[in-house]
Amino acid sequence: MDIFKSGSRPTKRASSDYFMGTVWQDPIVEAPAPAQVRAIRVTFEPAARTAWHTHPLGQTLYVLSGTGLVGLRGQAPRVINAGDTVWIPPHEEHWHGATANNSMCHLAIQESHEGRVAEWLEHVSDEDYTLPDITADKVYGSLFK
């Protein structure tokens, strides 16, 4: 058994190769083989987001605080709030991050496959980030003003 005391593993700033804006990562678990689970707490400052990416075995997001967005290729981003859980199936191109005016923190849980947890693609354009979601605007007001 391993116990990692709070603060024993440093918070790091996420790479600009895979994230836009200011994003902080706190490792939660990276289980040794043969286990494959990986979990990380990710904090996005307002308007920060991931690049487009996929996961070979899917991904679960659990929103810890704030208001965020999750987007699928060709669709308007959807609003996610503290307490929401999102399941993203294997190989589905997606991104996630904070809204323009709010920070968001989530727990990202995924499994590795052949040593990889994600395939990173291009950065999310401002156009894709701000695609209007009429339902969200009705419920939450405009997130992009």
Please summarize what this structure is.
By secondary structure, this protein is mostly beta strands. It has helices at 126-129, 134-140; strands at 12-13, 19-20, 23-30, 37-44, 49-50, 53-54, 59-72, 78-81, 85-88, 94-98, 104-111, 119-120.
How would you sum up this structure, described in words?
It is a single chain. With 145 residues, this protein is mainly beta. It has one domain: Jelly Rolls (Sandwich). It is built from 2 helices and 12 strands, in the order E-E-E-E-E-E-E-E-E-E-E-E-H-H. The protein has helices at residues 126-129, 134-140; strands at residues 12-13, 19-20, 23-30, 37-44, 49-50, 53-54, 59-72, 78-81, 85-88, 94-98, 104-111, 119-120. The chain is globular, with a radius of gyration of 15 Å. The termini are far apart.
Task: Indicate the topology.
Elements: E1 12-13, E2 19-20, E3 23-30, E4 37-44, E5 49-50, E6 53-54, E7 59-72, E8 78-81, E9 85-88, E10 94-98, E11 104-111, E12 119-120, H1 126-129, H2 134-140
Antiparallel strand pairs: 1-3, 2-5, 3-4, 4-11, 6-12, 7-8, 7-9, 7-10, 7-11
